[in-house]
Each structure stands twice: as structure tokens, then as C-alpha cells.
Automatic annotation (TrEMBL):
It holds the Pfam family NUDIX. The keyword Heme does not apply. It comes from the Bacteria. Keywords: Hydrolase. This is NUDIX domain-containing protein. InterPro entries: NUDIX_hydrolase-like_dom_sf, NUDIX_hydrolase_CS, NUDIX_hydrolase_dom. SUPFAM superfamilies: Nudix. It comes from Nocardia vinacea. Residues 7-133 form the Nudix hydrolase domain. The keyword Electron transport does not apply. Transmembrane segments: none annotated.
């Protein structure tokens, strides 16, 4: 940082689920912004372990570990006034079994197109940009 402070890093993983040119997003209870589903690792969890746990907790489905593939890793300032915090989001696609449903910690799920980009935080917007450039997001 310009003032010599070292930014704090929040290390997250996210599930990129695209259907019909739209990406699955979730709004946690008490928040006013949508996120790509996923979250922070606990302890020494690997990306895969974190991804499987977080998606089951948030969306009540089980990702199929053998289908998980890395899409990209993005970094951007945290949404809001804490400009000395950087979010790193490692993104993965995966197939799943079960029925997608918001868990008790999720207020709402939605399928977003690129037109909805402003409704997600800066790090998620970087993913939106790459997906639209690749022709995967409407």
C-alpha cells in the first residue's frame, strides 16, 4: 500500500455454477449484496475441502469432488470502506447432486447475467468480466 501498511488478506473459495448463461449467486442473511457461493477456509482445510463444506452449508447440495476444476483466482479490495483488506477468491466449477436450496444462513439465491454485475462485490466482478469475455455469461 502507498502508506506502507500491509493489506489484510481474506482467502476464500467459490463455486462457479453457470446455467443458460447465468451464474448462481447468493445473498447471506443480514447482507445487502450477493456473492458467488463459497467462503473462507477453516484451519488447514484445502481449497477442495472448503469448497465442499461451504456449498453444502449454503446451498444444501453435495459437490462431486471428481468434477471440481479450477477456473481462476481473483484478488480485489473488500467491498465497503475497509480499503486495506484484499479478498482472494479461488474459483472452481463442479457438478453436484441434490436440489439447490438456500440454507438457514442464505436469505436469497439468484441467477445473474452480466447486467447484474453491479450487485456483486469487486472480486466477483472480475470473475464476471472473465466469464463474459469467454462467452460463458449472458
Amino acid at each position: 500500500m502507498a502508506d506502507g501498511r500491509v493489506p489484510k488478506l481474506i482467502d476464500t473459495v467459490a463455486w462457479v455454477r453457470i446455467e443458460d448463461g447465468r451464474i448462481l449467486c447468493a445473498r447471506p442473511k443480514g447482507k445487502d449484496i450477493f456473492y458467488i457461493p463459497g467462503g473462507k477456509r477453516e484451519g488447514t482445510e484445502s481449497d477442495l475441502q472448503t469448497l465442499l463444506r461451504e456449498i453444502e452449508e449454503e446451498l444444501t447440495v453435495a459437490l462431486l469432488p471428481e468434477s471440481v476444476a479450477h477456473v481462476g483466482t481473483y484478488e480485489a479490495a473488500l467491498h465497503g470502506p475497509a480499503s486495506d483488506v484484499v479478498v482472494r477468491m479461488s474459483c472452481y466449477t463442479a457438478d453436484y447432486r441434490g436440489t439447490l436450496a438456500a440454507s438457514s444462513e442464505i436469505e436469497e439465491v439468484a441467477w445473474f447475467s452480466y447486467a447484474d454485475r453491479a450487485l456483486v462485490p469487486p472480486v466477483d466482478q472480475l470473475l464476471f468480466d472473465d466469464l463474459v469475455d469467454a462467452g460463458r455469461l449472458a
